[in-house]
């Protein structure tokens, strides 16, 4: 983070949505750019958390989806299957069209699912482009397994 002159901000669902949004909103107010990992610190992977949708709705800013892939990589056995490109591995980064959310739409869950579908499609395209799908098949991305269940509310 220091080499890119970025700072980390942690939002957490634990203290509640208002607390989780406070620091990102402050950063945006000072003109900083946010990069948010959509599945949060606890997963499950590929599920967009409501905080991202709430942040986009509150600020009027879009969600700009981004996917990365590298075929020469280590893939960890963690819940998120973290991918670490090997040294000098060729990588691909795909940036999708901005997702503008309607703040008047009451169904935040539907907006989460909309963002999830776009992000999964981008990741699938990035994995196919690098050939990683053949080496590291992901049953959720290939359609062989259903998406992970949403975590219980509360």
Mean pLDDT figure: 81
Which sequence of strands runs across the widest sheet? 1-4
Biggest beta sheet summary:
2 strands, antiparallel
Counting H and I runs of at least 4 residues, what is the number of helices?
A: 5
Q: Give the distance, in angstroms, between the N- and C-terminal Cα atoms.
A: 32 Å
Query: What percentage of residues falls in helices of 4 or more residues?
Result: 25-40%
- The helix-and-strand class reads alpha+beta
Q: Low-confidence spans: pLDDT under 50, at least 5 residues?
A: none
Please tell me how large the radius of gyration is.
Answer: 16 Å
**How many strands in all?**
4
Account of the 3D structure:
The chain is of the alpha+beta class and 154 residues long. The chain has five helices and four strands. The mean pLDDT is 81.
Short description:
The protein has 154 residues and is α+β, with helices and mostly antiparallel strands.
